[in-house]
Amino acid sequence: MPHCLLRSLCFLLLAGVVTGAGAQTTETLSIVSNGEQVGAIVAVTEGRRVSVDYRVDNNGRGPKHREDIVLGANGIPTLWHVRGSSLMGAAVDERYAWSDGAARWASQADKGNVAAPDPQLYIVNDDSPWALGVYARAALARPDRTLEVLPAGRIALARLRDMAIGHGPAATPVTVYRLDGVQLEPSYLMLDRAQRLFATFSASSVAIRQGYESHSAALLALGGELEVERVRAISAAVTHRYQVPVRLRNVRIFDPRSGANGQLSTLVVMRDRIAQILPGDGGSAPADQVIVEGEGGVVYPGLHDMHSHTTLTSGLFNLAAGVTATRDMGNVNAFLQDLLPRLDSGEIAGTRVTPNGFIEGRSPYSARNGFVVATLDEGLEAVRWYADRGYFEIKLYNSMNPAFIKPLAAEAHRLGMGVTGHVPAFTTADQVIRDGYDNIAHLNQLELGWVLNPGEDTRSPLRLTAMARTANLDLRSPKVATTVALMKQHRTSMDTSASTLEQLMLSRAGQVSDWHRDFVGHLPIGYQRYVKRTYVPLKQAGDDEAYRQAFDKMLAVMDLLHRNGIALLPGTDDPNGFLLLREIELYARSGMGMRQRCAPPPWAAKSTCGATPSLAPSSGASSPTWCWWRTTR
Hints:
17 helices; 29% helix; 30 strands; six-stranded mixed sheet; TIM Barrel; 15-stranded antiparallel sheet; alpha/beta
């Protein structure tokens, strides 16, 4: 067979399955997380019609839906219909159509219609990675590669580099692009020479053409490299480091011990330390100092997010929200090990990160983070790996074999680490406390032990949906009292993450929640629409009210734990920082005063951050843990 013909056949086989005279093309992409395939996209194109089947099974959950698309002459869809289920199983039925000079759409987030002489690009609310290829091709058709989109906003496409994936005859030339304007973070993708989607990728996940899965690690590395370049440039532009004293003048210092703002004062900061606190405007300042006018604003302790999953950009969002320290509760190990020294050196702006080592058990429902272990020996090796790298705690997850918990906890304690995590399936909060947990992650993980039936499997979305059963839970019952007594006896703290549970349990389609109302309108359209959704399935009358009563009961549980001296740790399980402010508001709703919200017992701070923080500023205090907030007038 001539060599040129062989290469042509290889190209056709790698691009997809072609039947008839090019009438139908099937393209498959594999979804890869932490080195394992967790889903797939199968797209069948016939003329201008495309059907996309999208399925993800990761951590016992994932979107599963079908998309039907009709492309216009310019590649912009004139019809886009999505139906199936979203992350936690809520129903999806989204429709967009253009005809007769008008565009109409209806999704979980919103519905609307506008006059449009020509088809306009629609940003899908419940999309798949396949949509990024549609968006990119639409932008490529514009001279400046920017495009106004529906329902609102603008996207921009930047060409980054040309390269080839694979070797020899299987090598596929691709162009790498960055797409901005859809989500909080940009999307990276590859198109082949025919402008077909070859891959979407980031520093933590990959969707790649079937047959090229072995190159996933290289794409993860590329995603990290490209995002580091972008975030490094942003950090250099917004970060200011001075080799002379900085004088923050005319500010009021918030004291969390009293819950009050002080009189006008002036802070003098040299590098990372508060050198002086002076009354009033501090008097005349030496000529070589940097002066920042506080204008009566408040200086307050930098917030700690006790449940975070660090990304390259999360530090920027956190700092903007006044969050200066985070506890990373599970990550891709190679990614975090690369990022931590960049944060320490100041190359990338971000928080102080206390890393916890993620260990999951092997099952069909495993979350693909950290280490996924099948045997106790593998688990013990993972514990030692984290200890050797200075991790503060290990975090055990849903699929962990309950029989492994006690020896893993014992080994972590022997090596000077704490133990936190979910309550794995088929055990209870009471048992994991006895087995060595120092902290429980998420209030639902605590409460489920009071309402689940023996044998029920929380590796699925049941760990969220079963919360509806707690609506009528009697907090004076013996089983609740037993758990609280165990927590007191073992000094087990509670990582609440109430704000995320509020979002999951109470978000409703088409509604902007109270906790997003003040800032979501400033964010990209994809993020705006994603938060206006129902996460939990509402299958029958009364489900909505049950979740609302269950959430109120959750706040009552927080109050119960607090009154019993259990340390509550405010965390979000969210990367952007703003949700932590909502978390503190929920602490107030649960009945705590300002002092209790901002000042957990010193032993609790030490057990979760590795040090007991200073609560009020004083000369010699570390200044990066303090934030200045000026109310806009």
